[in-house]
Amino acid sequence: MGGGKDSASKRQNLKTIDKAEHSHALVPAAEDMVIDAPIISSYNDRIRPALDAVDKLRRLMVMKEGIQLPTIVVVGDQSSGKSSVLESLAGINLPRGQGICTRVPLIMRLENQANLKSEFSLEFNGKLVQSDEADIANAIYHATEEIAGHGKGISKIPLTLVVKKKGVPDLTMVDLPGITRVPVHGQPEDIYEQIADIIMEYIRPEESIILNVLSATVDFPTCESIRMSQQVDKTGERTLAVVTKADKAPEGLLEKVTADDVNIGLGYVCVRNRIGDESYEEARKEEARLFESHSLLSKIDKSMVGIPVLAQKLVQIQANSIARNLPEIVRKINEKLNASASELNRMPKTVSSVAEAMTSFMRMIGFVKESLRKILLRGEFDEYPDNKDMHCTARLVEMLNQYSNKMQKCTESDNKKNFLVEEIAILEECSGINLPNFLPRNAFIVMLQKKVDGILHMSVDFIEKVWNYIEGVVIGVLMKHSENYYQLQISVRRAGNNLIAKIKKRSVDRVMEMVQMEKLTDYTCDPDYLDKCNNLNALRENFMRDVLVNHLRSSAVDLQGFGHIEVDHLRQQFPVLNQAFDLKMRMTAYWKIVLKRMVDSMALHLQFNVQNLVNNDMEEEMVNELIGPQGGGIERMLGDSPSVALKREKLSKSVQKLTESKEVLAQMMEKMVA
Ligand code: GDP
Ligand code: MG
Q: What are the residue boundaries of the GED domain, all occurrences included (predicted)?
């Protein structure tokens, strides 16, 4: 052990905890390590503030805020020797033995101190219990009973054991219940799932170091704990194996740990724990002697045996892990703090007086009006960049175009099918005792009325569809701006629905009126009508010749503006054909005007009503609903809704916790610099 006195090379050794570089001469003797712990403590002076900070964060439960802390998690099958390993590291007695002893996560925090008088305390459920070395096993037993009940059940609520003792390595580790496939008497049926759940929760985060405790007496690949750690750490880069009970199964142990069948990235350490009533010091001596002199065990490299080596490796791994994770932790805490603080800021102030309620209400109405003006009138959608439904001006034009297309394509607008058949029928019905070369006006009006009736439903459908759409938009905007006044939302929604229902009814009436007007008379000042009419009528002579003279040649003729039309059925209709053609051409020219007028006035009507809605009607309806004689009363805005109150409380707690965490980290930085 000559090298053991060379502190420079020891330090060097600590920096490079590479299996290959470890030579047996560099490993300090057990006495050095644990009784005086010179290397570990000098090293720990530097890592201690960081470890303290991480432990404080753990106690603040920042993990609940979604911030993972570097943690050494002890896992192993039942009776693999987990508690014994922790005992050996801490130099104390833990509840140990057959059956399930560790029933809650036990966070064990070891602190090296100069003072010879050791201190022991337990923290759980917000309580702090002082204890002493002789009684600690008992105290843990009782605390476990308190947390997890008297039976054999387990619990997720952790128990923290703080051990301040001269010579212990500065380490914080979590001991978890051992994995068991078969429930013992008195255990719940799903004990395996419960335990697996807890273990997974602790070992899944990338920040966790897995300390896998394996008994030398078993075949490693069959261990449940190996199976589980491999699920979350395939390459084993954050898994360290401790092989216990080396004394019980020395045969083949060297081969097992060198073959590394189970992918342990951080290496193996073989140990022999305290047996029976041995004292802690006796146990260490016995272990040292065993690995020094046993014919098989002495062949294992000294960098892979003994509790002191394990302690040293763990301290090193822990330091690396903290150093690696700390910047990210600081960043995450700041990020979460900022997010929570600004969310809290954005929450509405609690409304506590009627005047305040009034102000908030009027402000809300103001916001709603501005939003609606933007999306419905001005076509600005910066508030809803990705929600196409809220890009209203575009959607309204889209609907208007659809309406127009539908009108152009409907049967009423189809002037090719059954060419002149309807015209002939109507003319026959409208004939009277008068000259045949005057087109009876009545025939034109009858035909017009039939056609207009045919498009009535399209116009009503359209206007209803538009208002349904606007209703969705208005309600959406109302809900968005009233989300902080939960008591208001019901009234506001009702007001919105009522308002749109009223407007819709008015609008439908107006559309019906427009249609009625079209039926009443035929009028336009549009010169296009006459032009078109004349142009179309100019086709008549050719058409008549095609139908009547060239009839032997073909059953269909080409008519400019109409295309290829069937005319066979017209050949017997000679007497009224001229008039029918005239009627058709006038109607064709006029129908274009009618459709144009419908679509145009529909567009203007809509724009006008939407403008009114935003500028006048909405405010009026809201004020009536809330403050009017039949209204629900502005007092309803007072006080927080349960959900808002809960959110506010949660946020302020989180802000408080994160602020404390930030403080902890700032203090740590100061200490490290000092
Ligand atoms: P846990 O269930 O994983 O916490 O296992 P325990 O620490 O309670 O140990 C189970 C049993 O194995 C106990 O009886 C211990 O005394 C025994 N044991 C643990 N480590 C060793 C060891 O290194 N050598 C021997 N011979 N027995 C050990
Ligand atoms: Mg145990």
A: 580-673
